[in-house]
Automatic annotation (TrEMBL):
GO molecular function: heme binding; metal ion binding
Record protein name field: Cytochrome b5 heme-binding domain-containing protein
Keywords from the UniProt entry: Heme, Iron, Membrane, Metal-binding, Transmembrane, Transmembrane helix
Upper taxonomic lineage: Eukaryota, Viridiplantae, Streptophyta, Embryophyta, Tracheophyta
Stored SUPFAM superfamilies: Cytochrome b5-like heme/steroid binding domain (SSF55856)
Subcellular location: Membrane
Similarity section: Belongs to the cytochrome b5 family.
Gene Ontology CC terms: membrane
InterPro entries, A to Z: Cyt_B5-like_heme/steroid-bd, Cyt_B5-like_heme/steroid_sf, Cyt_B5_heme-BS, Cytochrome_b5
Domain Cytochrome b5 heme-binding residue range list: 78-154
Transmembrane segments: 183-205
Pfam families referenced in this protein's UniProt entry, alphabetically: Cyt-b5
Length: 214
């Protein structure tokens, strides 16, 4: 069988003719063209064939994993996984990540991830929230996330030694609120107690000087 090969140059992307069949092509093509970032990476470094897109690799049939994901997510219905369960998926062919308390099955995205698959693999078995945020992912990247979301991580199952890093956004905001609330309570108490303390001091001084004079 003759394989048609063509190199996809970044400058070609916006001009590419997108027919119905091509709308199912890898999302990294569209992401890259819309965000304008990470072009070099998306176009070679992480692709085993050196960035050469084949006619087959662009077709829906050649990428069966692309559709089952959304189906899987649709059926996931907010499933809650234990940390241990999530940690089991730590392979290039089966890779789950925890970002902001949610669990993402990024297996079908490994090769397409503009940042490369190695960075994703480096984030398994821990909370990848900080790593994800530090990169400064664009809104386009964040819009991609829901389709890879398979559920949430049960915060109670996270090992204690990891809890400083594995904090969900909810938990973080809850603890922030608690700290703010207790600081506010102390300030109010101090405001109320201060005049009483001053009065007591003045009274004591007055008594002391009267006693001295007598
Ligand atoms: C579901 C999870 C993720 C999705 C959907 C995603 C998606 C993307 C996308 C679309 C880009 C292109 C730039 C942009 O639009 O922001 C990108 C770049 C990148 N991502 Fe991710 N990403 C994910 C998780 C992660 C994680 C956990 C890391 C860990 C460090 C990471 C590291 C990077 C790096 C290093 C780049 C390249 C940045 C650059 O060269 O400017 N990504 N990602």
């Amino acid at each position: 069988m003759t394989r048609v090969r063509h190199r996809v140059e970044p400058r070609d992307l916006p001009r590419r003719q997108v027919n119905k069949r091509e709308t199912a092509a890898p999302q990294w093509l569209y992401l890259v063209s819309s965000s304008g970032r990470c072009r070099s990476r998306a176009h070679g470094i992480n692709r085993p064939n050196g960035g050469i897109a084949t006619a087959e690799s662009s077709s829906l049939e050649a990428r069966p994993a692309a559709r089952p994901v959304s189906l899987k997510v649709a059926m996931a219905g907010g499933k809650v996984y234990s940390f241990e369960e999530v940690r089991k998926h730590s392979d290039r062919k089966d890779c789950w990540l925890i970002i902001a308390g949610k669990v993402y099955d990024v297996t079908p995205f490994m090769e397409e991830h503009p940042g490369g698959d190695e960075v994703l693999l480096a984030c398994v078995g821990k909370d990848a929230t900080a790593d994800f945020e530090d990169i400064g992912h664009t809104d386009s990247a964040k819009e991609l996330m829901p389709q890879y979301c398979v559920g949430e991580v049960d915060a109670a199952t996270i090992p204690a030694k990891l809890t400083h890093a594995v904090v969900t956004k909810d938990a973080a905001s809850r603890s922030e609120k608690t700290t703010t609330a207790s600081a506010g309570t102390w300030a109010t108490l101090l405001q109320l107690a201060l005049p009483v303390l001053l009065l007591a001091l003045a009274f004591a001084l007055q008594n002391y000087s009267r006693a001295k004079a007598a």
